[in-house]
Amino acid sequence: MPEMNARTRERVRKLHASMGSSNEGEAKNARAKLTELLRKHGKTWNDLPELLQPGQAGSSTNRDPRDDEPVAPNADIHALDVIHHLLQQYVELQPHEYVAVSLWALHAYVYDQFMVTPRLALTSPVRGCGKTVLLDVLRCLVPRAHKTDSITPAAIYHLIDRDRSTLLVDEGDNLGLVFNSTLRAVLNSGHRKGGRTTRFVGGDARPFSTYAPMAIAAIGMLPLPIMHRSIVIHMKRAPPTRPLRHFEENDLEDLNISYTMNRRWARDAKLNHDPELPKVLRNRAADNWRPLIAIADTFGPAWAERARGRPQLRSRKATTTKTSG
Description:
This protein is of the alpha/beta class. It folds into two domains: 6-58; 79-324, 3-Layer(aba) Sandwich (Rossmann fold). It has helices spanning 6-18, 24-40, 48-51, 79-90, 95-110, 131-141, 153-163, 181-189, 224-228, 253-268, 283-297, 301-307, 310-324; strands at 119-124, 145-148, 166-169, 196-201, 204-209, 214-219, 230-234. The strands form two sheets. A five-stranded parallel beta sheet has the order 2-3-6-1-7.
């Protein structure tokens, strides 16, 4: 029988992912094709767990070629300072928001060391406030980035379970989150370690992990449960007197350098997983900020103070009050 090479394995994974489609006809068709493909290669449904395992040749469609570059020893310049500087070039944010987004980008490298991975909610009252540009920049800075303008619950849990992707979702206001309870449940469950969804695959109930970093951009507000699980960034249009750098795919050298520095930091970081938090942070807000403040502490007193700064906490308190009304 023909050997199942990397390309065939990838087809198996795509058909398996399509079986989770909400379209009954698409799911049924994918199941039939997968059954035939397994039979052709002398495999059965019992072989699926091995075939779906990450780390196999060609298993990930989200592999970053920059990961093959060597990670150099630590330099004097800090990864967090570089991210903070780059964000200021591309988007208009409040000072405390630059701090929050910089820390969130680094947390995507070490999120699995914490019980919570806060969502990053990018909201704006109108279009043209830089949400898409910010997601493009983050795509270059975070590990295993998958940026999309639309996504289904099945795609989310398959990407996370297989690739441990950092999901960057644009056009969140078009996802119908108010009415799509399945999608809301997947987004909410991935906030806390151990979050998962269960689906029937090949006649057996199979759990899929949903725990992974996620940024969601939307005009207006996102549903309250998602906002409470998020670091919320309220974006506005930059004034005409504030020139911003244009994002170009062929001009990413400094962003790629930053990515390498982030990998280096993640390799060597020694984190205090229970840092001292400001008293104003309680319950879920404290959960959201704990990993970010732990990261800030590794960069010295100045960053530790920035992360705990009063403007930052006032912003979070105001958001909570506004969305609770």
